[in-house]
Amino acid sequence: MDTPWEITIALLFVLGALFFASVIYAFAWAKKNRQFENLEAGARSIFNEEEPEGRVTDKFPPR
């Protein structure tokens, strides 16, 4: 008969393996859908003419 510790360790091992497999799947999906090709474009897409990149025009909390 298995002790509670053995059951707990086996459950944690299975959950860890499932988590690892889901992380690998997520990275494979992102690579397949070209999510990692141009990382800077997404970072710059939040800027516009009113708030150009590199210049702070607002602050939180206001002073």
How much beta, percentage-wise?
A: under 5%
- The gross shape turns out to be elongated
Radius of gyration: 23 Å
Q: Which spans of ≥5 residues are poorly predicted at pLDDT below 50? A: none
The whole-number mean of residue pLDDT values reads 84
Number of helices: 2
Ends apart, CA distance between termini = 67 Å
Tell me about the biggest sheet? none
What structural class do the secondary elements suggest?
A: mainly alpha
**Helix and strand run:** HH
Helical residue percent band: 55-70%
Give me the count of strands: 0
Care to describe what's here?
The protein is mostly helical and 63 residues long. The protein has helices at 4-32, 39-44. The protein is elongated. The chain starts with a helix and ends in a 19-residue tail after the last helix. The model has no long low-confidence stretch (mean pLDDT 84).
What is the topology?
Blueprint: H1 4-32, H2 39-44
List the defining traits of the structure above.
63 residues, mainly alpha, single chain, 0% strand
Short structural summary:
The protein has 63 residues and is mainly α. 56% of the residues lie in helices and 0% in strands.
